[in-house]
Amino acid sequence: MNSPLHNQDNANSWNDAEPSLASMVSPSRIALSTTADGWCVDISSLTPCDAMMALAREDLLEDSTILCGVGASQWVACVNGPVEKGDANAIIREVSKSLSPLCADFRMQSVVTSSDGESVSVHLRQYDDALMLAATALAQYMSDLLGENVQAPDLGVMDSLLHKTGTISIRPIETEVFASFVDVGISTGNSNEPANTAIIFDIHSNSWHCD
Fold this sequence. Notes:
Low-confidence stretches: 1-20
Largest sheet: 10 strands, antiparallel
Helix content: 25-40%
Strand order of the largest sheet: 3-4-5-6-2-1-7-8-9-10
Distance between the termini: 10 Å
Structural class: alpha+beta
Strand content: 25-35%
Shape: elongated
Number of strands: 10
């Protein structure tokens, strides 16, 4: 997708110069939906460890209990306060069978599940936490593309991308890297549909802007 920021000075894109690196970057799909107890965000390109690191804020973890389990999928839950055995058993049951596992305990703030160790499905109480995970995935995509750590986009940017359909898909073939910015084509339909919008990453200022 071409951006209005494209100009003659940036005529030779990075994609033309080094297509091999672009081919090493995995596509990313982010799907956000509501549940009975909050939000669920499915991210194809975020590992469980990265998701937990993004959610690990000191103000939440200081008085929280972390529960882990395995079954059809691996999972990690964060619960405010101490957890007795009966509460833990209830959480284990709900995580394994419920479409909204947060219902197991009103103190549970998040549940990260993964069936393959490379993608996650995360249930959250707070909408901002869902946007933050989506922003983390987009920053990871750009970091892999450029070979250096980049700043995650603001939550408002992610909200504007997800508010239309709740789903965004990003493919390296629809990403163009120029001297001073990266034009990321984004599809708000299914993963097979071409990009219909874009987000711009400004390399020099390490910042993101909606097209």
